[in-house]
User: Fold this.
Amino acid sequence: MAARVVRSRGVHTGLAGAQAEADQHTYDALNYRDDQFDLSDALTALAISLLALTSLTQKRWLFGMAAMVMGFGVVLGLSGFLGLDIHPDFLAKLLG
Assistant:
């Protein structure tokens, strides 16, 4: 009877381990997309702040910088929605 319990627990542990690995893979894939959306939000907020400063200072170079930051934020947001493989790892590690 004891051998039967041990055998059934071993099979159960193997199945649970396989399920845990599959869940970890799913979590990593979703976390990758979550990082894209987080960076998109951060860059969009930064661009809005730069645009506010641009309206106060009337500097064209500041407007250009805000436009570049906004463009990069839009690209990251679209890559998250479309499932593209655009992900600045250095920026994610710096901010996360």
